[in-house]
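Reference record
================
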Amino acid sequence: MQKKQENLLLFIWAVALSATLGSLYYSEIKGYIPCTLCWVQRIFMYPIVLIGLVALIQKNGKIAWTTAAFSFIGGCISLYHYGIQKLAFLQESAPSCGAVSCTGQYVNYFGFVTIPLMALVAFAIIFIASLVLLKQIKE
């Protein structure tokens, strides 16, 4: 495995770890109760940390297929979640998410940065890095 590929694996793992630690900070330290969609996003982010670490140890770049799939699905969920927080026509039809509303916004930095947007950015970065890694492996 080339050094560039190994660095991309490290980058994917670091982004996933940062997102995971961020979600744990908001829920365990700040005390924000995650809604159902937040939990679903976590289901797709948390495994990327373990998968990425194992791939890094094994120097297995082909794991990028898995990280790309997980990040794409998680990103779609994050995009929908962000949409129901910020778009009025989606808020009206938003499903009941349980004890905590999925339309609620614990944070709203700069008027637009919410937790689902942060997750979406992390998923997008992982997805793009995974595609770059797959392209490098092909060459």
